[in-house]
Amino acid sequence: MTTPTDPSVPPDRPRPGRKLGPIADNVSSTHRAWLEPMREIYLASGLTLNGLSSRISFAKSKLSELLRGVGLYPRWEVVFLIAAELGMPNWPLYRLWRQAAFEAHRSGEWVERSTERTAILTATHTAPPLDYRAFRELMEGDYLLYAQVFLDDDQRDTAVSDTFDILWLSWNDALASHDTRRFAWNVLRATVMARTPHRDGRPELGTAAFDTVALRSLADPADFMDQIPELMELFTAISHLPGRQFDVMVLRRLCGFAPEAVSALVGASLATVRSDERHATRFLESVLCPPPSTEGKTP
Question: Does residue 9 register a pLDDT over 90?
Answer without folding.
Answer: no
